[in-house]
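pls ignore typos typing on phone
calcium ion + seq
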Amino acid sequence: MSLLLLEDDPAIADTVVFALQREGFTVEHRAWLAEARERLRETPAPELLILDIGLPDGHGLDLCRELRAGPLKALPVIVLSARSEEMDRVLGLELGADDYLAKPFSPRELVARVRALLRRAQAAPAVAAGFVVDGARVRLDGVLLNLTKLELGLLLKLLQAPQRIHSREVLLDAVWGTSADSGDRTVDTHIKTLRAKLREAAPTRDPIKTHRGMGYSLEP
Ligand code: CA
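k done
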């Protein structure tokens, strides 16, 4: 199990490498964005990336965005940040990070996050339980859903990566496009009607999870 750590602070890097190696992981360490980009072009690719935000030659989240647009779009990424501000967290998740840890963190916490993320990534193809998609027709537990175009758009976007938290901005962009002059409320309103229809089809379940202040995901 080979992990790539991009971190320019030698003390943090040493601690992280030590903690992960002790748990049996192989860790490659790079301190510069350019070095990490180079490594990520080589094969075999690492199985997970631990990414610092503030780097000597740029912003770690730029790499995150690049990865999500390329062949490594499914590579699990944990972002490390010196700033614990909500904005960073939201921005990180929006740019495609899978998890986020604010410094200072305990090495044990990081190891736990790494394990959890690898488990999620290795679980059979991420399909949300009970959903079957056939073009524009979606069934939940066998019941054909009667959705509006916008509800369908939201659901399909969520189904692409069910366990990822989709921020309202990401959903707006995906479903309404850049021309939309609608706000977060628009997303919430349509999620609400979508949720009601899902509940009608599967009364015992509520597959859409709300993450306060962050966005929505689907139950695995
Ligand atoms: Ca740094």
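Residues 128-218 form a domain with the Arc Repressor Mutant, subunit A fold (CATH 1.10.10.10). DSSP finds eight helices and twelve strands in the chain. more later
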